[in-house]
Task: inverse folding
């Protein structure tokens, strides 16, 4: 809350081998010196080679037909063993969603405690320090001191609409939140008379605010809140 002009709070903060290919073809010697036994032996070897070639060809055709049958038919799928279940790890998006929820929870908590502090011009008895660093509390405490001296407090509540725009990992994870602060029903009031304090009509009633948070252990802490000179 920027108390001086009451325009905005300052603290919001990825094969088949051919038969005979490896065996040198049997050479048959032609001529008068070749005996009948040699001719028979040569003929038998040639027949054996041809038989192996024929058998290999049949095996190749059979294998191709079998593969075609597997890819084109669903009738045998029930007989195939089911694949082993795979453990599913949390997706990056689910982790980001959890972080964003935690960031917003801390941000909202800080705002709630800040509203309590301004309603009595004192942070005593509030839980501001649970989600807000001392650096961010400095501006709030200054505003509260000014309000106490002027005998003023606030009534009502601000309306906030925060959104996490960025979460960054690292040794100390950080997050950035943007918000639209609506102070229409958050009224600066004279404590004694209970009447609203007159304020400039040109002040921003709804304005953009950004906040920076850091993760300290398991807790997201508001470290900085900056009110923008921008209506929303």
Result:
């Amino acid at each position: 809350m920027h108390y001086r002009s009451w325009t905005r709070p300052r603290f919001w903060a990825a094969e088949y081998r051919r038969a005979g290919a490896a065996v040198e073809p049997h050479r048959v010697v032609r001529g008068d010196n070749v005996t009948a036994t040699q001719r028979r032996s040569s003929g038998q070897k040639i027949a054996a080679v041809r038989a192996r070639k024929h058998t290999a060809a049949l095996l190749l055709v059979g294998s191709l037909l079998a593969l075609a049958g597997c890819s084109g038919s669903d009738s045998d799928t029930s007989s195939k063993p089911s694949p082993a279940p795979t453990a599913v790890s949390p997706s990056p998006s689910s982790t980001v969603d959890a972080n964003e929820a935690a960031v917003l929870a801390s941000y909202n908590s800080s705002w709630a405690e800040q509203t309590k502090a301004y309603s009595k011009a004192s942070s005593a008895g509030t839980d501001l320090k649970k989600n807000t660093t001392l650096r961010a509390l400095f501006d709030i405490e200054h505003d509260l001191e000014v309000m106490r001296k002027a005998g003023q407090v606030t009534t009502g509540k601000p309306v906030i609409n925060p959104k996490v725009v960025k979460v960054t990992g690292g040794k100390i994870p950080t997050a950035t939140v943007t918000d639209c602060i609506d102070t229409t029903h958050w009224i600066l009031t004279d404590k004694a008379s209970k009447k609203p304090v007159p304020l400039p009509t040109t002040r921003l009633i709804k304005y953009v605010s950004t906040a920076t948070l850091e993760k300290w252990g398991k807790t997201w802490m508001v470290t900085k809140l900056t009110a923008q000179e921008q209506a929303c």
Remarks:
- The helical segments are 36-72, 92-120, 128-131, 134-150.
- The longest helix spans residues 36-72.
